[in-house]
Amino acid sequence: MTQVTELGYVTIGVSDLKAWEHFAGRILGLEVVPGESEAVRYLRMDYWHHRIKLVQDSADDVLTAGLRVAGVLEFRAMAKLLSDAGIPVRIGTTAEAEASKVLEIMFLEDPNGYPLEIFHGPLMQYHLPVHPGRRMHGAYKTAGGGFGHMMQSRTASFDDIHAFYTVLGMRGGIEYKMPIPMLPKPVELMFLHCNDRQHTFAFGGPAEKRCNHLMFETDRIEDVGLALDLVKAEGIPVIIEPGAHANDHNFSFYFKNPSGFMNEIGWGGRKPTGQSEYYAGDVFGHHPTPNSMKDFMVPA
Ligand SMILES: [Fe+2]
Fold it and tell me: What is the pTM of this model?
């Protein structure tokens, strides 16, 4: 079956590139690489040319997300699948693919109006092992699951979002019905997967920004603890205290990045179970901090 295979990269528009360089290198432990101009930086966490592209932009939000397909045949099959489903798609030029460091690229929007890119053939740099911006006990887990997951706000219905991402080959559905004090109904959250990562995209409710949070997974629990120590030492707001999720089982915490949305760093995630489940709360922890929930919808 033709399907997307991983979240390959995201592009983030950031108003303060200097603050992001520091945050990415010294807090997240990513490698910061200069871009083609002073308005671009690339962030690496493995052998890929980049997993995150930072561009100078006042949006302070994720501008686009790149979903991979396996190869040229799958790329062409996906383009046909989308067209047959009535989803507008534009095949990128060679120059556009080269600018994104991939072999071929197509452009489309999801039901929320969020730009997406589907590509195959990322540029791999096996001669450039990642050089983290700070000490790391281990590395970020990217093999078999993409570079992480992203939770996004939504304006479209869950049904429309589910139908669209099903065309892309993703599976999943509502996994949380979370009771919130003072709200008449539990908050519902949708999670979609396409590989060994329990979820690649998640959708909550309406919010000012597209991106609620970006999650990276470490292969050593010590790197979650080190990140927490560094976040606290620099006075960066912790938004959600450490805890373990019921769906992906990651032990993680959430903190605010220089663009005002959240990063999550976790360890110990499980694969998709293959059958739907739902939860009314997490395994333990993940308590919102006092200064947090007014600015963010419920994360997962
Ligand atoms: Fe998450």
Answer: 0.96
